[in-house]
Amino acid sequence: MTNYHPMVGFHFRVTFGLGASELDVNFQSVAGLDASLDVETVREGGENRYEHGLPGRAKYASLTLKRGMLRNEQSDVTKWCVEAFKNNRVTPIDLEVALLGEDHTARVVWKVIHAWPKSWKFNELNAERGEVFLETLELQYNRFEVQDA
User: What is the pLDDT of residue 91?
Assistant: First the structure.
Protein backbone atom coordinates (compact mmCIF):
# COMPACT_ATOMS: atom_id res chain seq x y z
CA MET A 1 0.00 0.00 0.00
CA THR A 2 1.41 3.38 -0.95
CA ASN A 3 1.56 6.23 1.49
CA TYR A 4 -0.58 9.18 0.50
CA HIS A 5 0.49 12.51 1.95
CA PRO A 6 -1.42 15.54 0.69
CA MET A 7 0.58 18.75 0.49
CA VAL A 8 0.09 21.45 3.09
CA GLY A 9 -1.04 24.91 2.01
CA PHE A 10 0.94 27.03 4.44
CA HIS A 11 4.45 26.67 2.98
CA PHE A 12 4.74 28.69 -0.22
CA ARG A 13 6.57 31.55 -1.90
CA VAL A 14 5.68 34.11 -4.55
CA THR A 15 8.37 35.09 -7.07
CA PHE A 16 7.83 38.22 -9.17
CA GLY A 17 9.42 38.81 -12.57
CA LEU A 18 10.90 42.07 -11.29
CA GLY A 19 14.29 40.94 -10.10
CA ALA A 20 12.59 41.27 -6.74
CA SER A 21 14.44 41.05 -3.46
CA GLU A 22 14.20 38.07 -1.12
CA LEU A 23 11.77 40.09 1.00
CA ASP A 24 9.24 40.05 -1.85
CA VAL A 25 8.67 36.27 -1.75
CA ASN A 26 7.02 36.19 1.68
CA PHE A 27 3.26 36.59 1.82
CA GLN A 28 0.75 35.70 4.50
CA SER A 29 -1.81 34.44 2.01
CA VAL A 30 -2.47 33.98 -1.69
CA ALA A 31 -5.99 33.64 -3.07
CA GLY A 32 -7.52 33.72 -6.53
CA LEU A 33 -5.86 30.86 -8.34
CA ASP A 34 -9.28 30.15 -9.83
CA ALA A 35 -10.17 29.23 -13.39
CA SER A 36 -13.59 28.56 -14.86
CA LEU A 37 -15.10 28.08 -18.29
CA ASP A 38 -17.99 30.11 -19.61
CA VAL A 39 -20.90 27.96 -20.75
CA GLU A 40 -22.44 28.72 -24.13
CA THR A 41 -26.01 27.47 -24.40
CA VAL A 42 -27.35 26.19 -27.70
CA ARG A 43 -30.97 25.38 -28.37
CA GLU A 44 -31.66 22.54 -30.72
CA GLY A 45 -34.60 22.87 -33.09
CA GLY A 46 -37.33 20.36 -32.26
CA GLU A 47 -35.85 19.56 -28.82
CA ASN A 48 -37.62 21.61 -26.16
CA ARG A 49 -36.72 19.60 -23.04
CA TYR A 50 -33.21 21.01 -22.55
CA GLU A 51 -30.46 23.22 -23.92
CA HIS A 52 -26.98 22.02 -24.82
CA GLY A 53 -24.19 23.47 -22.70
CA LEU A 54 -20.91 23.95 -24.57
CA PRO A 55 -17.59 25.07 -23.09
CA GLY A 56 -16.67 28.67 -23.86
CA ARG A 57 -13.69 30.82 -22.95
CA ALA A 58 -11.69 30.39 -19.78
CA LYS A 59 -11.81 33.19 -17.24
CA TYR A 60 -9.63 33.75 -14.23
CA ALA A 61 -10.24 35.43 -10.87
CA SER A 62 -8.10 38.25 -9.51
CA LEU A 63 -5.06 37.16 -7.51
CA THR A 64 -5.04 38.52 -3.95
CA LEU A 65 -1.77 38.65 -2.00
CA LYS A 66 -1.47 39.71 1.66
CA ARG A 67 1.69 40.47 3.61
CA GLY A 68 3.11 42.63 6.34
CA MET A 69 3.89 46.05 4.92
CA LEU A 70 7.49 46.85 3.94
CA ARG A 71 9.09 50.26 3.44
CA ASN A 72 9.17 51.43 -0.18
CA GLU A 73 12.93 51.24 -0.56
CA GLN A 74 12.94 47.60 0.61
CA SER A 75 10.49 46.19 -1.88
CA ASP A 76 10.57 46.00 -5.68
CA VAL A 77 6.90 44.95 -5.58
CA THR A 78 6.01 48.11 -3.65
CA LYS A 79 7.95 50.21 -6.19
CA TRP A 80 6.01 48.45 -8.99
CA CYS A 81 2.73 49.37 -7.27
CA VAL A 82 3.82 52.98 -6.76
CA GLU A 83 4.62 53.23 -10.48
CA ALA A 84 1.15 51.93 -11.33
CA PHE A 85 -0.94 53.94 -8.88
CA LYS A 86 1.05 57.16 -8.46
CA ASN A 87 2.62 57.54 -11.91
CA ASN A 88 0.00 55.61 -13.94
CA ARG A 89 2.70 53.39 -15.50
CA VAL A 90 1.28 49.89 -15.47
CA THR A 91 3.85 47.25 -16.40
CA PRO A 92 2.45 43.71 -16.67
CA ILE A 93 4.76 40.98 -15.37
CA ASP A 94 4.75 37.21 -14.94
CA LEU A 95 5.02 35.73 -11.47
CA GLU A 96 5.13 32.30 -9.88
CA VAL A 97 3.37 30.95 -6.83
CA ALA A 98 5.19 27.85 -5.60
CA LEU A 99 3.85 25.35 -3.07
CA LEU A 100 6.89 24.11 -1.16
CA GLY A 101 7.71 20.77 0.39
CA GLU A 102 9.29 20.21 3.77
CA ASP A 103 12.75 20.53 2.18
CA HIS A 104 11.76 24.05 0.94
CA THR A 105 11.80 23.05 -2.74
CA ALA A 106 8.89 23.70 -5.08
CA ARG A 107 6.42 20.83 -5.49
CA VAL A 108 3.80 22.61 -7.61
CA VAL A 109 4.19 25.96 -9.39
CA TRP A 110 1.44 28.21 -10.70
CA LYS A 111 2.88 30.47 -13.40
CA VAL A 112 0.69 33.59 -13.49
CA ILE A 113 0.86 35.31 -16.88
CA HIS A 114 0.59 39.07 -17.58
CA ALA A 115 -0.28 40.29 -14.07
CA TRP A 116 -0.72 43.94 -13.14
CA PRO A 117 -1.84 45.69 -9.95
CA LYS A 118 -5.60 46.24 -9.85
CA SER A 119 -5.90 47.45 -6.25
CA TRP A 120 -3.62 48.11 -3.29
CA LYS A 121 -5.17 48.21 0.16
CA PHE A 122 -3.87 48.69 3.67
CA ASN A 123 -5.26 47.49 7.00
CA GLU A 124 -7.11 49.74 9.36
CA LEU A 125 -4.90 51.67 11.77
CA ASN A 126 -6.14 50.71 15.23
CA ALA A 127 -4.36 51.51 18.51
CA GLU A 128 -6.32 48.79 20.35
CA ARG A 129 -4.82 45.95 18.34
CA GLY A 130 -1.27 44.69 18.36
CA GLU A 131 -1.34 43.17 14.88
CA VAL A 132 1.07 43.27 11.97
CA PHE A 133 0.07 46.04 9.55
CA LEU A 134 -0.99 44.26 6.37
CA GLU A 135 -1.05 45.38 2.78
CA THR A 136 -3.29 43.61 0.29
CA LEU A 137 -2.37 43.56 -3.37
CA GLU A 138 -4.98 42.50 -5.91
CA LEU A 139 -3.65 41.59 -9.35
CA GLN A 140 -5.49 41.13 -12.61
CA TYR A 141 -3.94 38.50 -14.88
CA ASN A 142 -4.62 36.78 -18.20
CA ARG A 143 -4.19 33.15 -17.17
CA PHE A 144 -2.14 30.73 -15.13
CA GLU A 145 -0.41 27.45 -15.92
CA VAL A 146 0.09 24.69 -13.34
CA GLN A 147 3.46 22.94 -13.46
CA ASP A 148 4.91 20.12 -11.43
CA ALA A 149 8.30 21.14 -10.12
Answer: 94
